[in-house]
Amino acid sequence: MDTDAEHAPAPTIKLKRAKGRLLPHVEAYYLFRADGTEFESTERVDIGQIRFLIRGEGEMTFPDGHVEKMKPIMVAGPGTAAASYRLHGPALCFGVVLRAIGWKALIGIPAHKVTDHIIDGEKLFCERAPRLLEQLRDMTELDEMISAIAPQLIMRQEEVKPVPEPHFPFLNAVREWAASEDPTIDALYGTIEETSGLGERQVQRLCLEYFGGPPTKLKRKFRAIRAAMQIFQGAPISDVVGPFADQSHMINEVKHFTGHTPTSLRGNRDPALALTLQNEGFHFLPEVIPEPVDLRAA
Fold this sequence. Notes:
Layout: E1 12-17, E2 26-34, E3 38-43, E4 49-61, E5 67-69, E6 73-76, E7 83-98, H1 100-107, E8 118-120, H2 122-125, H3 129-137, H4 142-159, H5 167-179, H6 185-196, H7 200-211, H8 215-232, H9 237-240, H10 247-258, H11 262-265, H12 271-277
Antiparallel strand pairs: 1-2, 2-7, 3-7, 4-5, 4-6, 4-7, 6-8
Helix pairs in contact: 5-6, 8-10
């Protein structure tokens, strides 16, 4: 809730899809602006992001109730459920939405070890961090910020071990499984065994490492987000409830992973929520690109 909504314009968010040299690792960039002195909202589960809080301060309240202060440069680990946040503004936040490959290639920490936590992102850029923050604070446009961060991310990926080639079939299989209408765990195991020869234990380990949760948790997450997207875009409840045990189960799962009931999703004016529920790439994993980052790409 924006407590001074009568005096400040509504928050805005601009999005730009990644392209060129960082496309295998980065899905998109965004710039979130809240000109009010206080802004509160809910954040649905996500894979992981790098964020730069250029102006303002804030804190996140995670599903278990613990609170963490936002940092000027931070890595938001994958979520296990919806979290809430409060910004003390005016606030300006530049974000980098990572793909699963990008989490492995740029962060290099097993995702399940940092779920529902904020990591100090300055450690990613080491001695380059102060200069990077200084640059971003002098910028106001999304394109400028993308130009500033791209070389730093390329340097970072050179410092981390590359994604092993056998993991690409696994990631492709998870993507196709996540996008299916009613994914089953057996279908995931079967597909991955056929394409890459990985057994159940290996699949479970890689799901933890890349996505922060086991296949059973991923199934619940993708199912709930799909339902939330359909509801937000106007689908009747009768068209959404099929994969769930009943309507009550559907409502509870949607609220668990998005922080909203079906009723509160309809007509919701939170710009960040609207953007993500209108773009499948944020939840149903984008195409896995097996080529390494091409440093010569535009």
